[in-house]
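ok here's the first one, seq then struct tokens
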Amino acid sequence: MNPRALLEKYFENNQVALDIVYRHSRNVADKALEIATKAGLPQEELDFIEEAALLHDIGVCRIYAPKLNCFGKAPYVWHGVIGREILDAEGLPRHAMVCERHIGVGLTAADIVAQRLRLPVREMSPVTTCERIVALADLFFSKKGGELDLEKSTQQVRCDLLRFGEEKVQIFESWLSAFGVGEPL
């Protein structure tokens, strides 16, 4: 499976958006591989993590985000669900779950209801080690213009998560501890 070719298929002629998503995803993949290698995961899992990290934002192709040069109909928060649908249709169910479960430190059904997110009400939090590693790595990188290649510090990530509640910061802290991630990684 070639993640870049799959991204090209879904971003079709939108080279600007493809470049943004691929650069972001490459940074996430490199960080995820660093974390997974330090955690001692076997090569088979490293290969999966790299593919999943490169594809985790494939659903961005169908969202409305002019700053990313995307003009689909769905709101940004849907990109994980859309990514799952795309990768399920491609016969990649394990990769699909990474897409759906990578938003922040995960979205619970209670989060979806409490925040009145117009998403399916179901658990969308990382379950497997690989899912957690990709979600963790994603927290360190933005898709914002001018920030694509800037890695956030753990303190910046904590501040970003705090607006969603202390429990989200605690999940992040537990992942840092579980994977032996500190400053600097």
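and now the second one, same deal
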Amino acid sequence: MGDSARINMLIALRFDCVLSAKELAAVANIAPSTASEHLTKLTVAGLISCKKVGRSRLYSITDGDVCDLIDGITAHADRIGSRHEDKSRLPKAVKHSRLCLDHLGGELGCLVSNAMFSGGYLRHTPKGPEVTRDGEGWLSSHEIGKHFPNEHLRCPLRLCHDWTHGGYHLGGGIAAALLATFVERDWLRTRRGEIAVSLTPKGITGLGKTFGLDLRQVTG
């Protein structure tokens, strides 16, 4: 669990329940072949289990004890981070926009999340964030669904605390699909092995029009 790729995979499975090998490779920001090696180690260690469905291999946490172990590690990391981490020393690009597993974090991630709530595409419920009817139409019009099919087993949407910005950004399958769409449109660019996400000139225009955000002064 000390490896960054493996702990990212475990945290993703803790919150999103079931993920494929391809999705876990994206979560860890590594090549599929490398992800396969990590998944084998986690399976042999008894931390995750694998179920073959059709041509896909779906992974999940083995049991509640493993969930408790992951929760304890993340809670301890948060406590240590709040005492010792000087956020001002983080690169500006990381604070502005970064990968959080396989979805968008940082200031930009929080801005997009807030814009989707204020625009009426999402709403808060006792069980967490939920897509509204207007939001379903919006997701469909932007073809977000092709990156996250309705029949998918993964948790569709959740709020994720942003350690670089202090607010909340979107997590879950829909959030991952949003990032994939932004990258596909060349609004954002990611690089394997790096958590910083680059905002392009097209992204400044596209995200600005889509969410009503003024990003012209941003140099993320």
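notes on #2: The radius of gyration is 17 Å. The longest strand covers residues 48-53.
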